[in-house]
Design a protein that fits this description.
Elements (H helix, E strand, L loop, with lengths): L16 E5 L2 E3 L5 E3 L4 E5 L9 E3 L4 E3 L3 E6 L9 E9 L8 E8 L4 E5 L4 E11 L4 E3 L7 E4 L9 E3 L14 E2 L21
Parallel strand pairs: 6-13
Antiparallel strand pairs: 1-4, 2-3, 5-7, 7-10, 8-9, 8-11, 11-12, 11-13, 14-15
Length: 196
């Protein structure tokens, strides 16, 4: 029972549950009147179901500037899944340097993001339900993506020297080393042809 001037009350409700509530006014003579309609309230303290990132895989290296990020679906049987939030950052903690922070519909499980330059990126997806509960995708520590748009460093041909003539049918080709500070040198390809 509340004082006659009160029009609100804070009540602690436990757990994930559907609650129904009504207010009844009573005058000093004992006459009562209920509010015009009862109301329902869903208290949802349960976050959306766990889900995982699908691609790009951890440690993925690419020279492409546009990346398709994909993840499995989450669900929330209590208040319902409302959205996903894709975050792409140069910081693994996501507390700063967030490049992309996109809110997507609950039905979406893919987003294409254009990233710039040569950089190591971290990515995560956060599912949100209608009550404001959230669940982040899979472990963040393994969500590394390396975008490398810079070519390896210049290097030279060592031997045989330009214009060398030989009668040998087995020729050793040598070149200097190249480097790539972002993603490293994956391989060399030697091309030998009768045409320039």
């Amino acid at each position: 029972t509340l004082a006659s001037g009160d029009t609100e009350e804070v009540v602690a409700l436990a757990g994930t549950e559907t609650w129904y509530w009504r207010v009844i006014a009573t005058d000093d003579a004992g006459n009562t009147r209920a509010a015009q309609a009862d109301s329902m309230l869903l208290v949802d303290t349960t976050p959306p179901a766990a889900f995982v990132r699908l691609s790009p895989a951890s440690g993925f290296e690419t020279s492409a500037a546009s990346i398709a990020f994909r993840w499995t679906t989450s669900s929330d049987p209590q208040s319902g899944l409302v959205s996903y939030r894709l975050q792409v950052s140069t910081a693994s903690t996501f507390d700063s340097s967030i490049f992309a922070d996109t809110t997507l519909a609950a039905a979406d499980t893919e987003e294409i993001v254009a990233l710039y330059g040569s950089e190591t990126w971290y990515w995560r997806v956060i599912a949100s339900d209608d009550a404001g509960n959230t669940t982040a995708s899979g472990p963040t520590a393994d969500s590394i993506l390396i975008v490398d748009t810079a070519a390896p460093t210049a290097f030279g041909l060592v031997s045989p020297a330009q214009g060398t003539e030989t009668s040998a049918t087995s020729v050793r080709f040598e070149w200097g080393a190249s480097s790539d500070p972002q993603s490293g040198i994956g391989s060399y390809r030697l091309l030998v042809s009768t045409a320039p």
